[in-house]
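Open question from group meeting: does this chain pack into something compact, or does most of it stay loose? Before anyone orders reagents, we agreed to write out a predicted structure and look at it together. Recording both the input and the output here so the notebook holds the full record.
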Amino acid sequence: MSALTLSAASLLVLSHTGCKNGQTTTQPPVEATKTIADIEQLSPELSTIIPDGARLEKMATGFTWTEGPVWVQPGMLMFADIPSNSIRQMTSDGKVTIWLQPSGYVAKEPFGGKEPGTNGMTLDDKLRLTVAGHAARSILRFETMDPKGTKTILADSYEGKPLNSPNDVVYGPDGSLYFTDPPYGLPTQQDDDPSKKLKINGVYRIPNATAIKAGSAPNRAKLQLLIGDLPRPNGIAISPDNKWLYVADSQQKKWMRYPLKSGGTVGEGMVFLDASSAEGTGTPDGMKVDSQGNLFATGPGGVWIISPEGKHLGTILTEKPTANVAWGGEDGKTLYLTTSDAIYRIPVKVVGYRPWIH
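Structure tokens returned:
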């Protein structure tokens, strides 16, 4: 894989705005850029995160649009191949098998769109797999790792109207579940889709999601709308100190940051980083944080590595649309990437933040 080289104009863009201590700041221009193989280094700080000579390793290929990766024991990466309506599992040596198919849309009538499967996935503190249903228009939890076992619907509607298509999920420190709900899992993926009943594309919270009993109906009255003014909320993450909720907006090509309040709701949001003028294929989508608070966020060109202060430290270059990332390996120092057609991995120096372990 050849490296992607950014233009001089693009490098000026990458001296973007960021935020520190809740305030928007302007980063100084990048003085030097270093491209080695699959890494674009924009700051010397990146050397403390990515090992020298690190390269992307292609683990499996032949897919259409992979998403929602999560590492589960013993040594397995779960991910969705959305167009094939399946959840798959991959061993550490790259062997892939289908875990569940169909995973999302199950009605007899033809779906009529291109993304009938499920999307983002995570684990709770009991290591139960929680899935953004996407075309299923729900949030579901598998009570065991048996795909035919008991499933619990945690959310499927808001104020009596069906959800759009839940996209990504993350658990908060109190056992609440946060998720995004853009229209990408609807047949047309547009706001005027005939099946779209909610006017907004929201970010929601399910209070005490981990305490919901297996097989019970969702407590629809308790679902909370936290954010309703983003055109396309997509990836979602929480900082390891539980102070910040990050949301990617794939239409505006921005990452937003919201202070987490003690009751689990959020304060006023601010632009954490703006990638709207950056060059490269892809847009802000899925993301994860490491144990030091750095954000690993898919965006133009690949995976952006962003400091807790909002500084773009560098990019893992993929040269193709990249949907999401996940921490894997026994030590949490392997980053897995899901792209348009393949699964990759790359070693890192930092430990990935996995709340169900930490």
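Observations to bring back to the group:
Helices lie at 8-13.
The first helix runs from residue 8 to 13.
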